[in-house]
Write a structure and sequence with these properties.
Blueprint (H helix, E strand, L loop, with lengths): L1 H13 L10 H7 L3 H14 L1 E5 L11 E3 L3 E3 L2 E2 L5 E2 L2 E3 L4 H4 L4 E3 L7 E7 L9 H5 L15 E2 L26 E2 L4 H14 L4 E6 L15 E5 L4 H8 L17 H6 L25 E2 L2 E2 L10
Parallel strand pairs: 2-7, 2-8, 8-11, 11-12
Antiparallel strand pairs: 1-12, 3-6, 4-5, 9-10, 13-14
Length: 302
């Protein structure tokens, strides 16, 4: 905890936010948008993308190959300021950007390959004040799968608790059910594979936490993970202009039972997902064009 605090404070001190919290417009013009900095930032994006699956070496794709991409459904939502956004359907990757690499088509039967860009399952923050108002403790599971999840393997008595503002010390969410707001992302992958038949489906997932892959992996011929990058970076990997070199910074669970039954204070104890190619999505796993990347060192504890 102390080392983490040091890292955070060091960043704040280095950019002068502690002693000089106000922006210097002249200095900002000289620094923000500097070509060298932009280049290094983009290189960091490329280096962060993880390739989890590449069946039959479908990637990289040939230049100007015909690519099908269906529109993605975005449900209605409300941001943290309370501003609502209506539901919509739109292409996840800008078509003009895509066409710099490939030939776009909106007809699956005309395409050589399909590209799907989605996000990891989003089930909320694990708390609902409406549950509290109805007599519950307010706590809900955070699901890592797209489908509805009932936490029947969760602890009956939570480890955390004891807040003086709460009426109960037990924050358990056992037997509660939670839904994801983007279950349609999984539908998009499955429907795209149905449309494409035997032709390859490439899936790029923007991820912020671990996820369960069993709902979509078998429908994917290649899987790329990114942690919030420009679409251009994803297309540079897909097209072979850059080779994937990153490895997983976290374990990917086989299912939600593996999530609920792991030990919070023991590293690398999770039962990880094994895909249809026989690869296990464990910590430090990743692929490049040659196959599985061999880590420079072992991260396992003796």
């Amino acid at each position: 905890m102390e080392q983490s605090a040091v890292r955070l404070l060091k960043n704040i001190f280095q950019v002068g936010l502690f002693d000089h919290p106000y922006v210097d417009p002249v200095n900002t013009k000289a620094v923000v948008g500097k070509p060298d900095f932009l280049k290094k930032g983009y290189e960091a994006q490329l280096k962060s993308i993880v390739m989890l699956k590449n069946s039959k070496n479908v990637l990289p794709l040939k230049e100007k190959i015909k690519v099908f991409m269906a529109k993605r459904f975005y449900p209605s939502s409300v941001n943290f300021l309370g501003i609502p956004s209506p539901e919509k359907e739109e292409y996840t990757i800008d078509i003009s950007t895509l066409e710099k690499y490939f030939t776009f088509t909106d007809k699956a039967e005309e395409a050589d390959v399909a590209l799907v860009a989605i996000s990891n399952p989003a089930s909320g923050i694990g708390y609902d004040k409406n549950d509290l108002a109805k007599g519950g403790n307010g706590y809900f599971p955070i699901s890592l799968q797209y489908g509805d999840y009932k936490a029947d393997s969760a602890r009956a008595v939570s480890l955390a608790g004891g807040d003086p503002l709460e009426k109960t010390n037990n924050r358990t969410y056992k037997n509660k059910t939670v839904k994801t707001s983007n279950i349609t992302d999984a539908d998009l992958v499955r429907n795209t594979k149905k449309l494409m038949g035997d032709k390859p489906v490439i899936v790029a997932i923007s991820i912020s936490n671990p996820m369960v892959f069993s709902e979509i992996e078998s429908y994917c011929d290649a899987i790329l993970l990114d942690f919030g990058v420009q679409h251009q970076a994803i297309l540079d990997i897909v097209s072979g202009k850059s080779e994937p070199q990153a490895m997983l910074p976290m374990q990917m669970p086989a299912n939600m039972v593996a999530v609920e039954t792991q030990y919070e204070d023991v590293p690398f104890d999770m039962n990880c997902y094994k895909d249809s190619d026989g690869n296990v999505y464990d910590f430090a796993f990743g692929l490049n064009w040659k196959g599985v990347i061999k880590p420079a060192k072992s991260y396992r504890l003796n």
